[in-house]
TrEMBL record:
Region (Disordered): 1-40
Domain 4Fe-4S ferredoxin-type: 148-177, 178-207
Pfam families listed in its UniProt record: Fer4_21, FeS
Protein name stated in the entry: Putative electron transport complex protein: ferredoxin subunit
Keywords, sorted A to Z: 4Fe-4S, Cell inner membrane, Cell membrane, Electron transport, Iron, Iron-sulfur, Membrane, Metal-binding, Repeat, Translocase, Transport
Gene3D superfamilies listed in its UniProt record: 3.30.70.20, Electron transport complex subunit B, putative Fe-S cluster
Species of origin: Collimonas fungivorans (strain Ter331)
Entry-linked NCBIfam families: PRK05113.1, PRK06991.1, rnfB
Biased composition (Polar residues): 27-37
A GO term, aspect molecular function: 4 iron, 4 sulfur cluster binding
Presence of keyword Cell membrane: yes
Record-annotated 4Fe-4S domain positions: 73-132
Length: 302
């Protein structure tokens, strides 16, 4: 009987295997015709180590060295600050979202104590990252409180969709002239749906008892809220781009229709020129606006 160690040795070290079932490292087998017959030939694959078990025909590519991996950039200070924010997107910090606030903290134009949803614990987390002393939450931005949840009085809701447009994380479901409702698990308690409601049918209800700040909000909830906010921004940008393209195409068709109109009298010709000038001016404004948006996007991109 053969000793167990013979079976535990790696295949590359074993010489008792049949030629066709050995493991080749750093080579790839290919079929090349030789004298009218197909024969196996080992060819090197630059930059890659291939481990081939010829029996079942399995090929498993592996990078030859860690140096061939793409470089991974370390997160910026703004990235690390944003990761510590609760991502409610409430704008109480004085900025339109958590990301702009993080960038303002990073460049020194904003204090790290302007986030009421994060509370005093949030200030302490930012202070530790920035290696600064822990300071009180700025009362000008609001007070720390239990986590609120928006509740819509569905009987009073008129379906205006204004709260849906205001919600930064798409936590409100509904349609025009239809009843709206809040998806509880998605609501961040930002309060942004209160002001636009024309019938005051939305109230904020505390749902965390006496817990406030990060004691009432988890990192998993923050990460999910951030993902929904980012997805919403992409969706709104896409919808705006599609709408602009649709309007531009409509204007171009209208310009063609006006140019094709017959104008026999001087009055008709003047009216035709007036219409063409209006449409051309609208097309030019749309073009300039599109270029401006592209320039702003290029500036914002890293």
């Amino acid at each position: 009987m053969r000793p167990l160690r013979d079976f535990l040795r790696p295949p590359l070290a074993r010489t008792d295997l049949p030629e066709d079932n050995r493991l080749y490292q750093g080579q790839r087998l290919s079929k090349q015709p030789q004298s009218g017959k197909s024969a196996a030939r080992a060819v090197p694959l630059p930059g890659t180590a291939f481990f081939i078990w010829r029996g079942p025909g399995i090929i498993c590519p592996m990078l030859s060295s860690p140096s061939s991996l793409p470089p991974v950039s370390s997160p910026s200070l703004a990235d690390r600050i944003e990761a510590l924010l609760p991502q409610t997107q409430c704008t109480k910090c004085g900025y339109p979202a958590c990301r702009p606030y993080a960038e303002a903290i990073a460049d020194g134009s904003a204090g790290y104590n302007q986030c009421p949803p994060g509370g005093q614990q949030g200030v302490a987390r930012l202070a530790q990252l920035l290696q600064q002393p822990v300071i009180p939450l700025n009362p000008a931005n609001g007070a720390e409180r239990p986590r609120p949840l928006a509740v819509i009085d569905e009987a009073a809701c008129i379906g205006c969709t204004l709260c849906i447009q205001a919600c930064p994380v798409d936590a409100i479901a509904g349609a025009a002239k239809q009843m709206h409702t809040v998806i509880n698990d998605l609501c961040t308690g930002c309060d942004l749906c209160l002001a636009p409601c024309p019938v005051d049918c939305i109230t904020m209800v505390d749902v965390s008892g006496t817990d406030t700040g990060w004691d009432a909000w988890t990192q998993q909830q923050a990460d999910a809220a951030r993902a929904r906010h980012d997805f919403r921004a992409v969706r709104l940008a896409r919808e705006k781009r599609e709408n602009d393209e649709r309007l531009a195409a409509k204007a171009a068709e209208k310009l063609k229709a006006v140019a094709a109109e017959s104008a026999a009298t001087p009055e008709q010709q003047a009216e035709q020129q007036r219409k063409k000038a209006i449409i051309q001016a609208a097309i030019e404004r749309a073009r300039l606006k599109k270029e401006q948006q592209a320039e702003e996007a290029a500036k914002d991109s890293p």
